[in-house]
Amino acid sequence: MFDRGRRSLLSRRRTPSIPRMPWVVDEETFVDQCTRCNKCQSACEENIIIKGDGGFPTVDFNRGECTFCGDCAEACPEPLFRPTTETAWDVKAQINQQCLAQHNVECRSCGDMCEVMAIRFQLQPGRVAQPQLESDVCNGCGACVATCPSSAITMVTS
């Protein structure tokens, strides 16, 4: 006999901290209906979709940014995605204390990669310029994640 309370440890129903993919209807539908055919992974022009927990596809921002091309949703044979005309997801960048600029080391790599200019640098007297993240401008593309030399940027659900 087994303890049903521990069953979730072996289950594929772990809720990720951010959505696995842009435009996903919801996590439960995704896990129930995704066949793990890898068509989304093959269709991704940026090669940022990998096999995650349980073999389910997931975006890995350490590999690069999402261009929101919609090819992953278009390639999927299952009804897992909302229309790509809608906002892809509610994911935003977050800069933590590992940021080199916060340790007075000149670095602007995240701001240089941010196409929508959600990360800007504000001059500080006696210190290097500090990153200022405008969450309402951030589109959640993740371009800043892979370029950060200190892994100080993570993507979070806002």
TrEMBL record:
UniProt-listed Gene3D superfamilies: 3.30.70.20
Residues given in the record as [4Fe-4S] cluster 2 binding sites: C66, C69, C72, C76
GO MF terms, alphabetically ordered: 4 iron, 4 sulfur cluster binding; metal ion binding
Pfam (any one): Fer4_7
Localization per record: Cytoplasm
Cellular component terms (Gene Ontology): cytoplasm
Keywords of the record: 4Fe-4S, Cytoplasm, Iron, Iron-sulfur, Metal-binding, Repeat
Entry-linked InterPro entries: 4Fe4S_Fe-S-bd, 4Fe4S_Fe_S_CS, Fe-S_Ferredoxin, NapF
Residues bound to [4Fe-4S] cluster 3: C138, C141, C144, C148
Primary residence: cytoplasm
Binding locations of [4Fe-4S] cluster 1: C34, C37, C40, C44
Necessary cofactors: [4Fe-4S] cluster
Domain 4Fe-4S ferredoxin-type: 21-54, 55-86, 129-158
Assembly information from the UniProt record: Interacts with the cytoplasmic NapA precursor.
Annotated function: Could be involved in the maturation of NapA, the catalytic subunit of the periplasmic nitrate reductase, before its export into the periplasm.
Family: Belongs to the NapF family.
PANTHER family linked to this entry: ADENYLYLSULFATE REDUCTASE, BETA SUBUNIT, FERREDOXIN III
Protein name listed in UniProt: Ferredoxin-type protein NapF
